[in-house]
User: What shape does this take?
Amino acid sequence: MGTTSAKDDSAGSGPGRDRDGGGACFGRIVRSPLGWMAVGMVGVGLLSGATATGPGPVPVLGAVGAVLVYRWVMRRVAGRSTPETARSGAAREVLLGGGVGLGFVLVSAFLITAFGGYSFSWAGDGFVSVVWTAVVVQIGAAVSEELLFRGLALQALEQLWGSRAAIVITSLFFGVAHLGAPGANAWSGLAIALEAGVLLAAAFLWRRSIWFVVGLHFAWNTTEQLLGIPVSGHTPEALFTADVHGSALLTGGSFGLEASIVPVLIGVALAVAMLVRAHRSGRIKPRRHTGR
Assistant: This one.
């Protein structure tokens, strides 16, 4: 029996076994929430980065590809379904989110204008080309950012530490991600974290739909761009020219509307209302307590 036992031990411990153990360990890491989040971010990020500034409909095609990559990662790597990207009801969610985003920007811009911060004049050049460019670019931006921050990061962190921690972490990272934009500073980063990071996270938790937050994000950025207000410091072609007057705290200065106190207050109010609805519908996940 001693000889047989020695053979068994020898057969069970060698390079092959080490490789199998290492492969299993790697597989567990990749299938963990942080693992599939990282895999998805690399895939979606690379594709979006390669297509974001492409000609014609390339950003839209990149957005379609990003959704396909996201679904593949979630199903094959994370081992979960993707009801948040379901085609059924997608149009309704996009329109509903778009209405919220449109109203958010128009009300914010109206209040800033009423307080003397903005004045608008018609730019008068290339209506169709300006609108087309804004739409295709902002579709790409909205889809990629929502897949990265709400689809991947928020859901992975939520699975680990619950919805509340996921909101805080993703909102802070969303603010930090915009610090490299022209005219950005500590206040603009905090403003983005509060009005956009928290609001979009709350919107996702309320509706549990990528399409809702994509619609909100798209309408927000597109409306702001067409009005001629800088979008996170960037000032592409627009239908109007926006002249800025007075305090940067009111107008957002060169960074644009997102650094104004007005949309910060409105965004936080909307986020609270959405989080209350999400809580009442049981869509806020508590932190998991694992036993020792």
